[in-house]
Structure prediction request, 271 residues.
Amino acid sequence: MDAFDHLKCLSCKNFPENPVECSKCQTIFCDKCIQTGICTSCKRDVKFTSSALGKKLIGNMPATCEHCNFTTTFNELNNHRAKCPKMPIYCGATNCYFSGTRDDFILHLNKKHIGEIMNKYNKDKVSTQVSIKKDLFAPMTNAKGFKARRGQNNKFYCGRPSTVNCGECDGNCGPTNGCQCLDCLKLDRQFYNLSKTQCLNHNGIICEFSNNNEFYCGGKYELPQKPQSSRMQIIPPLRSYMTCEPYHNCPECKKMASCSDLLNLFMISSY
Prediction:
């Protein structure tokens, strides 16, 4: 008997993909061939356990896919089957008994079940949109326990007196022209998963606090147009754009840096 024959399943005489062994005589079997607790080699009532040695020895041996005859190893056989072009796929639809290759299965779905698929897709799409709207517009609680709602610029406002005051607003945390309070700033950071150097500018765009104590969002903004002479007014003016970056901030990020209270929060990293 060849040495490798001892690695073959005693029942089916093949190399097992998932070898198990008898706890008494260490004879190797396929896990699928074990029907009872009786070992067909030593004829005793035993326990069958996974064979670590069998897996190591058999795993690197060559194996052939039964569907396309592709040669690989036993360790990689299941990975190949997952993408094998000739692996049979069975339709799971009610009262449908189709089986075929992956390409045939796609054609089958398009021919027989496209209506069911589109109905399912449309229902899931509507339910997802509804849940998103509920999540986005439902009030949330800030760190002080006050309810805050998202404004049109996606920032949260609780409407209470704000600890951040730019000197030009009414001193309340929204919802019209007031600066956010510190607790709603923290709620923004939690909701949008922002770092300690990030916040939302007045347009609701994520901006970064730079080392030169400025905010920038990285977006494009239009530069102010120069006044034209009377002769040139018949020609449409050319529009110029610039990227919002350190030392070249967009107007909305400049407003953030003009608020000394907000600036101090980021400079001391307490926010």
User: Anything to note?
Assistant: Residues 128-134 have pLDDT under 50 and may be disordered. The two ends are 76 Å apart (CA to CA).
